[in-house]
Amino acid sequence: MNKQFWQELPRPIIGLAPMDGYSDSAFRRICKEVNPNIVTVTEFTSADGLHFSAEKLKRKLYFDPSEQPVIAQIFGKNVETFVTATKVCEDMGFSGIDLNMGCPSKKVVKSEHGVALRKNPKLACQLVEAVANATDLPVSVKTRLGWSNGDDLVDFGQAVQNAGADMICIHARTYQEPYKVAPQYEQVYALKDALNIPVIGNGGIESLADGERYCSLLDGFYIGQATFGNPWIFTGQKPQRFKDRLPVILNHAKYLIEHKGDRVGTREIRKHLLAYVKGVRGVKPFKKSLSTVESYIEIEQLLQEIAEMEINNVKENRTLQVA
Ligand SMILES: Cc1cc2nc3c(=O)[nH]c(=O)nc-3n(C[C@H](O)[C@H](O)[C@H](O)COP(=O)(O)O)c2cc1C
What we know:
13 helices; 8-stranded parallel barrel; TIM Barrel
């Protein structure tokens, strides 16, 4: 991969947003199977962790070759550990390095990582420069509009561009705005006008049409929460019947369990299963079982039962309508 990677991708660039606890290898694979043209980003991973105990964190960063191009996202505030982490990710075969400058979690901000770097643009640029000089991979930055407003966004974008960033992704909310607040894209458009590197928008996108509407002036968009239980969002063609969604859902469970083992894999798939059945009529009695699954076989049986229930409900409804 070369530094021109983001410049050369067809427009609009469409990606799965990095999401801790969600955008792991299994979910990225599923999204790629639904739409092979998307880009995916790993969950954020500690640069310090990769510096001091790489083997442990390499498991978290695992990816399947079918996911490519997949971008590794790292966070922290230490130039030296960012450089080691970059080398580890490069050796693992990632297609790019993304620097997290947007995470608002209390613990992360208290450590002056994530979005806290927006209060320290000098250090943010040192990190970008060190990473850009340490690798031939494209280096990107993901951040928010700003701390309490986006007034410094253009200055910040120009600074990281000058420091060597090859792309910047803006989550169109400030640090102080929770994930449900409506995104504001105007300042992202102003940033695009001021930069030469690609600008990707993110936040509040609930369909490909939304993405194209909000981000037509940008180079593309990442979708986050709207992918939960709906990887089909990347084609806009969610199968109408639950039965027809089963192959994708079962692959998701299979990949997760294969990679993380029965115990962790079945625990982690539970929240996804609940998201997958959202909106399926009559599913309520199954929810408790879905949230306690312990094996792949159990998952398969439960999902089949839900699919059959839905088919029977549809038949019953038709009979009632005819009668
Ligand atoms: C559960 C969760 C975990 C997240 N983890 C990360 C992360 O690891 N790295 C990151 O840059 N952003 C992370 N984000 C932010 C998302 O990438 C995205 O910017 C945000 O959800 C807004 O997009 P959306 O409105 O489409 O969800 C996370 C968001 C959520 C909801």
